[in-house]
């Protein structure tokens, strides 16, 4: 049966393949035929297909995978929040492109992908928690994948531009050098630069970026830990929400910034990546800082985030542009089609 594009989640295959098993199988078939030359021809053919499968984008043979993914990608299919929003052809096209992009990336690197379709989540349709779904869905996903280590949230209007680059190679295997821990490096909201009793040698469990408006939650990562569970509980705390939600224009973002600004235990396990590392902007975003190169996409940046495109920009046009650009930039030199 043809695989559905809108499957709610994808897990890498737990099947294991070995070169010895493949060659033994081929040998047994050809020996029964009594033709050693056929054996060598088939063996060469299998080796060729295996090479093409591992080093090109065409999976002629299944890639080697582990049963339990280290990373889970979380994608909300209705980024804008609300319930049963009417979508036109361009909206559906954006959604299909974004989902296919993350699904292909997850398969290529052995990650899991879970798609949270917000069009049926009526619990977020009223004033009490609309636009707060990221915190709740992060908690749900950690329960859904109990053995995964990292959880990467991506908004719908994002596109992975360098699909061949794994998160481990990009920064996860060298977090201390890839991230910065204090706000003296970059502090667009002028938050308190330091708090007493903060131990910056603690393990990094939350990775975010900052843009011209503060923390950016369009693309961020959280590690499974007891600290993360405590942070999610505090972040979702109804008492905190009731006291401050009228002052928080950006909902979850403002709540996290408040926790970071006032709680040493939150600050000491939070680290920042430069925006373009996982969250580069297209022209038109952060328009007041159009001359600042740290915000805006350059060729071979990892992820483009078309943040705010629904407010006066062309979301579909931007998605199609960057989808085409990614295909052109990452096409192997030997591909002529």
From TrEMBL:
It comes from the Eukaryota. InterPro entries: Glyco_trans_34, Nucleotide-diphossugar_trans. One of its GO terms (biological process) is protein N-linked glycosylation. Keywords: Glycosyltransferase, Membrane, Transferase, Transmembrane, Transmembrane helix. Signal peptide: none annotated. GO terms for molecular function: glycosyltransferase activity. GO terms for cellular component: Golgi membrane. It holds the Pfam family Glyco_transf_34. The chain crosses the membrane at residues 42-61. PANTHER family: ALPHA-1,6-MANNOSYLTRANSFERASE MNN10-RELATED, ALPHA-1,6-MANNOSYLTRANSFERASE MNN11-RELATED. Belongs to the glycosyltransferase 34 family. This is Uncharacterized protein. It comes from Candida tenuis (strain ATCC 10573 / BCRC 21748 / CBS 615 / JCM 9827 / NBRC 10315 / NRRL Y-1498 / VKM Y-70) (Yeast).
């Amino acid at each position: 049966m043809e695989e559905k594009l809108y499957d709610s989640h994808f897990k890498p295959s737990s099947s294991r393949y070995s070169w010895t098993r493949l060659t033994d199988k081929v040998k047994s078939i050809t020996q029964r035929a009594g033709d050693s030359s056929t054996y060598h021809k088939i063996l060469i053919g299998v080796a060729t297909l295996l090479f093409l499968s591992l080093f090109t984008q065409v999976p002629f043979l299944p890639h080697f995978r582990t049963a339990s993914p280290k990373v889970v990608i979380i994608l909300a299919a209705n980024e804008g929040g609300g319930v049963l929003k009417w979508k036109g052809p361009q909206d559906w096209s954006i959604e299909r492109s974004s989902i296919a992009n993350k699904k292909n990336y997850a398969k290529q690197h052995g990650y899991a992908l879970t798609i949270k379709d917000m069009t049926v989540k009526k619990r977020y349709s009223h004033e009490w928690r609309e636009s707060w779904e990221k915190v709740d869905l992060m908690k749900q996903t950690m329960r859904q994948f109990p053995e995964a280590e990292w959880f990467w949230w991506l908004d719908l209007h994002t596109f992975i531009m360098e699909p061949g680059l794994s998160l481990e190679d990009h920064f996860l295997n060298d977090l201390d050098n890839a991230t910065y821990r204090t706000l003296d490096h970059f502090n667009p909201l002028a938050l308190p630069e330091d708090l007493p009793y903060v131990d910056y040698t603690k393990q990094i469990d939350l990775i975010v970026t900052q843009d011209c408006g503060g923390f950016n939650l369009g693309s961020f990562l959280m590690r499974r830990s007891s600290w993360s569970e405590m942070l999610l509980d505090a972040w979702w705390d109804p008492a905190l929400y009731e006291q401050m939600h009228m002052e928080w224009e950006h909902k979850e973002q403002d709540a996290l910034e408040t926790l970071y600004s006032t709680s040493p235990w939150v600050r000491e396990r939070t680290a920042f990546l430069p925006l373009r590392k996982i969250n580069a902007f297209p022209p038109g975003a952060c328009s007041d800082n159009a001359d600042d190169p740290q915000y805006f996409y350059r060729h071979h940046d990892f992820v483009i985030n078309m943040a705010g495109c629904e407010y006066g920009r062309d979301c579909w046009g931007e998605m199609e542009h960057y989808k085409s650009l990614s295909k052109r930039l990452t096409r192997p030199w030997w591909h002529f089609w």
